[in-house]
Each structure stands twice: as C-alpha cells, then as structure tokens.
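Researcher: Next sequence.
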Amino acid sequence: MTIKAVMFDLDDTLLWDERSVSEAFEATCKAAAAQFSGIDPGELERSVRNEAQSIYFGYPTYPFCKMIGINPFEALWAKFSEGELPEFRELERLAPGYRREAWTRGLRQLGVDSEEWGSKLADMFLAERRARALIYEDTFTILDTLRGTYKLLLLTNGAPDLQKEKVAGVPALASYFDHIIISGQFGKGKPDPAIFRHALGILGVQANEAIMIGDKLTTDVLGSLQTGIPNAWLNRKNVSRNDEIVPMFEIRGLMELPKLIESL
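Model: Next structure:
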C-alpha cells in the first residue's frame, strides 16, 4: 500500500493535555491549601476528581458526552458555547454549577464546607487550565517532516469550542492540517466508524491509503481498525495492554512515524 494521508489525534498525541490538567489542579489545590490549614493539595485533587466524576456520571447528558468524547475534567473548564446539537445547550447550562459543585464537594470531603471557596477554586482552575497550552517536543518536528509529502488531518473528540480553543492556543498548529474534524461538530465521536469514513471522504483517499495516529486504544485504534485504516498506537509511557484491542503498530514517539510510513 502507499500512504497518502496521516490522521492525528489531538489530546495527549500532539497536545500534552494530561500535563496541562495536572498542573492546573496542582496550582489550584496549592492555593486552597494556603487558605485552609490542614488541607493537603494532593488529597484535595483526588477528592475533586472523584466528586467531579460522580456528578458527571449522574447527569442525563453523560451518554452524549461519552459518545462525543468529553471527559469530566474537560467539563471543569469548557464553556460549551458552540455546537448545533441541543445537548450542547444543556451542557452550557449545567457547566457553571458542575464546576462549582465539584470543588465545593471536594473541599467538604476534607472538612471545609464553603460554597464561596468552591466557586473561587472552580474559577481558578478554569483560568489555570486555560493558561496551559502544552505540546510535546516532537509535535512540530513531525509535522514539519510530514507536511508537503502527505495530506494531514486532525481528528479529535470533544466539544467544538473547547477543541478549537486548544488548537488556537498553540500558534501555527492549525496551519499544518488540510482538515480538522471535531466530533462535536460531526455528531459522533471516535471510535464510531462513521467519523473515520467521513475523514477518508474529506481526504479523498481509500482506507489503506491513510494511517491513524493516536494514544487511545479505545478510540483511535479501535475506530481505525473497524474502518480498515492502518494505525499506530502512540504509547509514550510504555504501558502494558491486553489483547482486547490490538494495534497494527506501536510507537513510543512521533519521530518513529516516517520510517514506519515508508515501510507500508
């Protein structure tokens, strides 16, 4: 086969989203610890994460969020101001209370009952996360290497306004891609084969003429396997996997891609 197009995931493939979230939690929880003696920042982070997930899973919007690919911690700073689907208007309505309640309940688990500080910390986390647009060292290097030789497409799950903001937060990132597809705009998220077929149609290539690169077996790899698209699982942390979802290829860093693609 001859590869003509490369499809990239965004979060934790090109953008270091996990670190951005972790640093935002660290800064916010340290501010809380400075205000309330006896609070451990790490314990507060764990408490808020647990409470956020509990609230998130209980909302009627959860099935939609799961389908689109919006996780509980994205909802702690997303505005949900875009998107034509009616569920986004409900998420926009729920988001302020969700953020406030997650932090208030997190504090309460550690003995601090203050809705005022729950609201303050919710706003602080939103600002801290919004200030951290972090990328991996190999992101621009690989995009520079591939641009001009292959069609490049960004295929990301998430809310339209949030994913657009993440891309815009890294100058020049969008300019590398011929197309950007966001699940919240399309109406279905990875691993649904429909969004992968849509990507192939936009690129004007057959399944065996593209390759999908992403860090998640359950979305990037599974969806591409179901659509017949070659894939490379980006396993930066060298984590173990079971054989439920088996990627065609596995890489530790993005700079392994040129040699892999040329071998196909």
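Model: The longest strand covers residues 151-156. The beta strands are 5-8, 151-156, 179-182, 210-214, 231-234, 249-251.
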